[in-house]
């Protein structure tokens, strides 16, 4: 008989706030700060999409293989089905990576809030007296910074800035690569459309060349105006038909050489007769 794994629903808030995984109850960060900052620590910690409980990535993936809700708050998580072929599907939950700098910033903010609550105000003889922590971290007696201010100065802002700077550079490189790819695709699409338009003009020229060369020239010039400027000169030289010399042209009836107005006048005169 298959036994179900016990769900850690009896976790205390201070256990999670202290850096424990909500599934395996081990530390979220089980390495030294230097080793953790040297590697890509962005994918070590994950959380479900609809809540803020932190887990190890592997623990969260294994949990959602057999369940569809958060182990702590029991909120239901949307599942994604992927088709593998041959009627097989794989279900995975929507989880989000938690960046290491965000975790460190939350911890430091909590420490700073606790220090401000301790150093901010103190009750002396029933009155509220301001302590040196509110006056820039200097004591009234010696004028030197306190331990809390010294701890803030040599904290982790430089390391957090290096992580943030490296992540911004990676995002900028990805944006530049994506933008160059979009530009190349756009240029390729324009060339393809211009080639298709040129082929259509060739077909139109072949059809109209059997009727009247003047009509061919007018229609092609109007069509070339809709092409890009760099292709107008090239295609106009290709499409506009050249008139053959008089010796090579076959003999035509005399009425074709008449102008339209004179031809129409002669035609009406013949109709009246």
Summarize the structure.
The chain has helices spanning 13-17, 33-38, 57-64, 100-120, 147-153, 157-208, 213-224, 229-239, 260-272, and strands at residues 45-48, 55-56, 79-85, 88-93, 95-98, 121-124, 127-130. The chain is mainly α. The strands form three sheets. A three-stranded antiparallel β-sheet has the order 2-1-5. A two-stranded antiparallel sheet has the order 3-4. It has a two-stranded antiparallel sheet with strand order 6-7.
- Provide a count of the helices: 9
Helical amount? 40-55%
Please name the fourth-level CATH homologous superfamily of one domain.
Answer: Zinc/RING finger domain, C3HC4 (zinc finger)
* Beginning-to-end CA distance, first to last residue: 114 Å
Highest CATH level, the class of one domain: Alpha Beta
Uncertain regions spanning at least 5 consecutive residues: 1-17, 31-43, 121-156, 234-242, 253-259
Task: State Rg.
Answer: 40 Å
Shape type = elongated
**CATH fold-level topology of one domain:** Herpes Virus-1
The SSE string, one letter per element, is HHEEHEEEHEEHHHHH
Q: Into which percentage range does the β-strand content fall?
A: 5-15%
Q: Which architecture of one domain would the CATH scheme give at its second level?
A: 2-Layer Sandwich
What is the typical, i.e. mean, pLDDT?
61
> How are the strands of the largest sheet arranged?
2-1-5
Largest sheet: 3 strands, antiparallel
For the secondary structure, the number of strands is 7
Q: Which structural class do you get from the secondary structure elements?
A: mainly alpha
Report on this structure.
Residues 104-119 have a biased composition (Acidic residues). Residues 151-165 have a biased composition (Basic residues). Keywords: Metal-binding, Zinc, Zinc-finger. The chain is mainly alpha-helical and 273 residues long. Among the domains are: 13-94, Zinc/RING finger domain, C3HC4 (zinc finger) (Herpes Virus-1, 2-Layer Sandwich), CATH 3.30.40; 163-235. Helices cover 49% and strands 11% of the residues. The chain has helices at 13-17, 33-38, 57-64, 100-120, 147-153, 157-208, 213-224, 229-239, 260-272, and strands at 45-48, 55-56, 79-85, 88-93, 95-98, 121-124, 127-130. The strands form three sheets. A three-stranded antiparallel β-sheet has the order 2-1-5. It has a two-stranded antiparallel ribbon with strand order 3-4. It has a two-stranded antiparallel sheet with strand order 6-7. Strand 3 and strand 4 form a beta hairpin. 9% of the residues are buried. Mean pLDDT is 61; it is low at 1-17, 31-43, 121-156, 234-242 and 253-259.
């Amino acid at each position: 008989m298959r036994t179900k794994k016990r769900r850690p629903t009896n976790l205390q808030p201070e256990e999670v706030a202290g850096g424990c995984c909500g599934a395996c109850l081990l530390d979220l960060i089980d390495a030294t700060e230097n080793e953790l900052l040297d590697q890509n620590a962005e994918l070590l910690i994950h959380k479900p999409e609809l809540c803020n409980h932190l887990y190890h990535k592997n623990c969260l993936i294994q949990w959602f293989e057999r369940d569809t809700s958060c182990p702590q708050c029991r909120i239901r998580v949307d599942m994604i089905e992927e088709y593998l072929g041959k009627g097989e599907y794989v279900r995975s939950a929507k989880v989000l990576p938690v960046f290491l700098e965000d975790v460190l910033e939350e911890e430091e903010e909590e420490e700073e809030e606790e220090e401000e609550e301790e150093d901010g105000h103190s009750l002396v003889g029933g009155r509220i007296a301001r302590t040196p922590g509110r006056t820039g971290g200097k004591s009234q007696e010696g004028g030197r910074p306190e331990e809390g201010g010294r701890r803030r100065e040599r904290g982790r802002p430089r390391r957090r800035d290096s992580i943030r700077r490296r992540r911004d550079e990676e995002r900028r490189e990805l944006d530049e690569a994506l933008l160059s790819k979009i530009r190349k695709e756009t240029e390729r699409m324009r060339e393809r459309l211009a080639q298709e338009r040129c082929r259509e003009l060739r077909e139109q020229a072949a059809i109209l060349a059997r009727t009247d060369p003047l009509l061919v020239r007018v229609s092609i010039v109007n069509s070339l105006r809709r092409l890009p400027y760099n292709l107008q000169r090239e295609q106009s030289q290709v499409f506009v038909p050249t008139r053959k010399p008089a010796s090579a042209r076959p003999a035509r009836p005399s009425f074709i050489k008449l102008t339209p107005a004179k031809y129409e006048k002669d035609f009406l005169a013949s109709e009246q007769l």
